[in-house]
Amino acid sequence: MFLRKSLGLAVALLGAASAHAGRPPELAGFERGRAVWLGTCQLCHAEPATGAPQLGDAEAWAPRAAQGKAVLYQHALEGFMGPLGDEMPARGANPALSDDEVKAAVDYMVRAAQPVKP
């Protein structure tokens, strides 16, 4: 029994460590947004064929970020049809996401697209 609990703890700790491994320090503090991105947003924002701005693509995110967070939040929460017919479904097509979770994911993606400061 003790061995099973110890093994479970070790696996949990390794999982937590690997979840943070390789992540740039400038994204520290964005864990909630990253979790939402992994669970929902990456389906489109990590697949170039969808037309969605890809995570970390500063050029694609710059004009969107320039509109301000209020507009980005609105588009993510309510949905948006882009000028090229590309669609941002409301809440990333995951109605179970809270407003705060959607906003955290937006914050994470916008931050990931900003240049790294030395």
Question: What is the name of the CATH architecture?
Answer: Orthogonal Bundle
Output the helix-strand order: HHHHEEH
Side by side, the strands of the main sheet go: 1-2
The tally of structural domains comes to: 1
> Could you give a short account of the major beta sheet?
2 strands, antiparallel
The CATH superfamily appears as Cytochrome c-like domain
* SS strand fraction: under 5%
User: Between the first and last Cα atoms, what is the distance in angstroms?
Assistant: 49 Å
Shape: globular
Average pLDDT, all residues: 82
* Count of extended strands: 2
Radius of gyration, in Å, reads: 17 Å
Question: What can you tell me about this protein's structure?
Answer:
- This protein has 118 residues and is mainly alpha-helical.
- It has one domain: Cytochrome c-like domain (Cytochrome Bc1 Complex, Chain D, domain 2, Orthogonal Bundle), CATH 1.10.760.10.
- It is 56% helix and 3% strand.
- The protein is built from 5 helices and 2 strands; from the N terminus they run ααααββα.
- The protein has helices at 2-20, 31-45, 58-65, 69-78, 99-112; strands at residues 80-81, 87-88.
- Strands 1-2 form a two-stranded antiparallel sheet.
- The longest helix has 19 residues, at 2-20.
- The radius of gyration is 17 Å and the shape is globular.
Looking at this protein, list some descriptive labels.
mainly alpha; Cytochrome Bc1 Complex, Chain D, domain 2; two-stranded antiparallel sheet; 2 strands; 56% helix; globular; disordered N terminus
